[in-house]
Write a structure and sequence with these properties.
Secreted effector protein pipB2 fold, alpha+beta, 48% strand, 2 helices, four-stranded antiparallel sheet, single chain, 137 residues
Length: 137
Amino acid sequence: MESLFALKKTWEDERFFEANFNIVGQNSSIIMDSYLDESEISKLIDGVKDFIESFGKEEFIWRLEFTEDTPLLSLRFFLQNKVGVIGIEVSADNKLEVPEKLQANFYLTTEFDRLDVFVSKLASFQKGSVLELKVAL
């Protein structure tokens, strides 16, 4: 099974929106809803662009925070090896109580050209051209 990153707007107003994340790895996946605003998407786009431009020399961590010191969703982009394989560490914690509690930590692998597609589709999502994106990583 190939890795997948999917994001779908389920509700929005003038300042923020609710989105459904579906992140699938080889052996693990998460589906979760969260609220975020355009600045969060901008941070992800800009950070991944910088990561690509530096050829992975500087890792990039994007955090969607529940509170200031407790990330709800974290994506860490890093160079897995020198032939251009990229690792993405996915960490999630919905901060709910059992039985709704979700905690996950797993890894995806991809390549620079797939990250270019990811950034392009995220930019379309941010502009409102699409309400749902799916990127095979």
